[in-house]
Amino acid sequence: MLAVFSLISGSILLSLMFFMLLFASLGFVVGMPITTVTIWLSLVCTLVYGFMVTKFYFKQETWQLFAKLCLLITLSFLSFMYISGLFYDISYDGQVYHQEAVGQLAHGWNPFQDYLTKDRSHSAVLLNHYAKGPWIYEAVLYSATGQIEQSKVFNFLLIIISFLLTLSSMKQCHRFSVKQAVIFSLLMALNPISIYQALSFYIDGQLASLLLCLVALSYRLITQYDRVIVCSFIMSIALTVNIKFTGVVYVIACVGLAGGWLWLLKKKHLYANLAKTSIIGLFIGICVIGYNPYVTNIVYYGHPFYPLYGAGPKTMDIMTSNSPQGFMQMNSLEKLYVASFSMSTNNFDREEPVLKIPFTVRPQEFKPFVYGADIRIGGFGPWFSGMLLLAGLTLLLILIFPTKDGLYGIGLVVSIMISVLINPESWWARYVPQFWLMPISIAAVAATEAKKVIRYLGVTLTGAVIINLALITYPYILGNYYCTQSLDHQLQEIAKRGETIQVCFGDFTSNYARFAKWGIDYVDARDDIADINIEEIRYKYLTAVFQEPLLSDIFVDERMDKHE
Predict the structure, then answer these.
(1) CB 101 within 8 Å of CB 128
(2) Other C-beta atoms within 10 Å of 486: how many?
(3) What's the order of all strands across the beta sheet hosting 522-524?
(4) Is the N end or the C end of the chain the one with fewer CB atoms within 10 Å?
(5) Distance from C-alpha of 295 to C-alpha of 281, rounded to nearest angstrom
């Protein structure tokens, strides 16, 4: 019952995002921009889909269960939408181009037919050529509510979806108790990347959640091939490939690895099911929803991942300036080791990574998680290195005392690591969010092993995961709260002037929405004649946390350059 109920709930929530993306894209094809019609059409189709899914599994109590599901889903969505709206996105990329893209789409930009120029957006190259999935469904919601910050709700929504679908799969395999299934599903869904990007418009957390959905649905697809699971798998693929370019690579890797294990297990009769479902999902995701950028990039620039590839001497290099000191001379495995076993930090351009003793935490390691979003070194948390050591020891014992189920779990771990290592920049946590699943998968396998020592190690590893998440979540929530309070105060003071303000927005043009929300009459001006510079406002709220009692201890003698 729990497996089916969680599958239905996750599938319905997934369909809401899928329909938003599909109808917005079809509208672009016929020249219709995003309007409130898009969200109402998506809601109607989601309700119809939800009723059909519920009826498929529960023919006798369809209306009662469907009504309860609708109530639960609505309350969850509205609650997290409200929470999202309480916080400003304080991240750099979130304000420079992610929110900019959402605003452009909500205000009439049709990426299928309209090529942005530099005079319309400072980030025109990225907006024109990057995958647009999150921007589109966030813009659909923004067009309906008028509150752009509430569109961050999809970060939370995907965490919930990934939890539900993973719970469904763990219960379906009949190996875990309800308590174990809930705990491990929750720990997998609460990926650190998803946590410290939840209050921003960054998209890697959404990719983390969708990759977990794909893993969970791959298992369901192999063990129970029915129309609901097929639809959910197709929607997951279509959404994943439209998150970012690496989504395409990871989907192909997931499908390929699943097919490889089917071959090893001599279950070749399941190939066709997996293959045709994956092809449908990829076609919808790349050729229909992802017409821009994938098809347009190929047609006009010769490569689907332009401008990161295929631009010749003009190829965009985003790694050299973002790599920590010394990393350009290391191979991918060396970089992954250093990034995983060093102190958590984002001062990548000022100091080299510092290796540390696992399970130790220094106060300065909390600093990067105060702001979150794109932590370079130790991006999975201060205790992640210790988790890896415990996971390695547990895995060794599972291999010494092998069981059939244990070997299946090892197969999953190997698959995860293959998907991580195919990325040459696997050192950067947000580029390989699936790495988080590796130690938790080992803990889950250990929880049901016969040997007490393996079970005890699994429990210890699970405890370490929980503590690691707490070490990340505490500074992130407090940091974003204090920054939001400071920004609110600054905007309130500007609004009190009651006059037209000359503002230098620079690259932070998404802040137009914040000024409009406060009813501030402004004119975009050059820095030399502006009354206010957004960089100054940003400096004030980023440094506001230095004086807050609950965080001040980790910012002792801290200084931040005004242009950082």
Answers:
(1) no
(2) 21
(3) 522-524, 501-504, 532-533
(4) N
(5) 16
Task: Look up tokens 């965080």; give the residue.
Answer: 551
Amino acid at 285: G
**β-pair partners for 522:** 501
Residues 69 and 9: beta-carbon distance below 8 Å: yes
User: For the chain, what is the radius of gyration of the CA atoms?
Assistant: 23
Find where tokens 């923004």 sit. 142
The angle subtended at Cα 357 by Cα 454 and Cα 414, nearest 5°, is 45
H-type alpha helices, 242-366: 245-264, 271-282, 296-301, 332-341
Nearest residue to 23 (alpha-carbon basis) of 33, 38, 12: 38
pLDDT of residue 561: 43
- How do residues 174-223 score in pLDDT, each as one tens digit? 889 999 999 999 999 999 999 999 999 999 999 999 999 999 999 999 88
CA-to-CA dists, residue 534 to 487, 502, 514, 560, angstroms? 11, 11, 11, 16
C-alpha–C-alpha distance, residues 33 and 25, integer Å? 9
- The reply to whether omega before 307 is within 30° of 0 (cis) is yes
Q: Are 483 and 477 in contact (CB under 8 A)?
A: no
Cα angle: 58, vertex 61, 65; to 5 degrees: 85
